[in-house]
């Protein structure tokens, strides 16, 4: 790493492309933040897909973004939506070329998602240095298409030689948000009282953080409802929740879930007052700090954050992803004894018993925490920024 670059060899112009989900957006922002830390005068612009999450989240983080008219191909090949794909692709390739001429980036970085493809393809054709960051153990289609066109592949998980040239792969881990990275140092972890107060909880019983990802998960939401209904079904003197729940239901399920909880509260107020239902959590650091146990989908970024946070973890891989890559992600922790795994079709019936089993087994929880700490990669952003500098000969 060039620790003291002169003004002439600093990075000046960067384009970062991709998005679609928080799993792509958060690492992109983490990479941008590290580049800015080293090069305060750098101009970083993002390129995303119109109508997708990045068009709001990136500006909220303080970066400018341009949008491409692009989307993926529907799996059902006869879908009428696929008729517009060729026009979207041509439009995006044309705009990508215009953006490269306008901003003249020294390097283009892709993080996966629809918008990465056109921009990195055009950049590689123009001889502009290119790098992609692949978060998953099974790469997305955009990054697989770009495999032989980019110069460096920063891998979040080992074993990507099947899809990318081995000599171009650098295993870096996944870059994490600064607010989460702080939790790697116990000195920076918010006090339990502060994190509990943020969610209007008293610090008087264990807290379970249940998250289905930025878009939410229907099966996990059903599992939470089943947990609450179980305690409601007990005789009246026992109708209480022995722990509190932070329930991140996902933005698309927020209205439905809050309405359900409101109706439930009318009958069982004592149970419901121990539940916070939220669509999206911006202060993940406080949610992680408050939690005693975490139940989560097994997206790549979730896996990376959970390893860093090091709290006893239950993983529920989504069945709705290509090549079942969330199960592969989850097994990277399960094999280390760092997590338990519950299949999606079992989660409604098994989530409560898995939570209770962990609450009753402190030895297993302690072993999970130790194993998670050995799996964490807190320096991913630093290593990726080093690779950017290598490509630019800085």
Summarize this, please?
The protein has helices at 22-38, 54-60, 85-103, 116-125, 141-145, 178-181, 192-198, 218-232, 254-267, 269-272, 284-290, 300-309, 325-334, 347-359, 362-375, 380-391; strands at 13-17, 43-49, 64-68, 107-110, 130-134, 152-155, 169-171, 207-211, 244-248, 275-278, 293-296, 313-315, 340-341. The protein folds into two domains: 7-176 and 378-391, Rossmann fold, CATH 3.40.50; 179-375, Glycogen Phosphorylase B (Rossmann fold), CATH 3.40.50.
General description of the model:
There is one protein chain. The protein has 394 residues and is of the alpha/beta class. The protein folds into two domains: 7-176 and 378-391, Rossmann fold (3-Layer(aba) Sandwich), CATH 3.40.50.2000; 179-375, Rossmann fold. 43% of the residues lie in helices and 14% in strands. It has helices at 22-38, 54-60, 85-103, 116-125, 141-145, 178-181, 192-198, 218-232, 254-267, 269-272, 284-290, 300-309, 325-334, 347-359, 362-375, 380-391; strands at 13-17, 43-49, 64-68, 107-110, 130-134, 152-155, 169-171, 207-211, 244-248, 275-278, 293-296, 313-315, 340-341. The strands form two sheets. Strands 3-2-1-4-5-6-7 form a seven-stranded parallel sheet, with helices on both faces. The protein has a six-stranded parallel sheet with strand order 10-9-8-11-12-13, sandwiched between helices. Helix 1 (22-38) packs across helix 16 (380-391), helix 3 (85-103) packs across helix 4 (116-125) and helix 7 packs across helix 11 (284-290). It is globular, with a radius of gyration of 22 Å. The model is unreliable at 1-6 (pLDDT under 50).
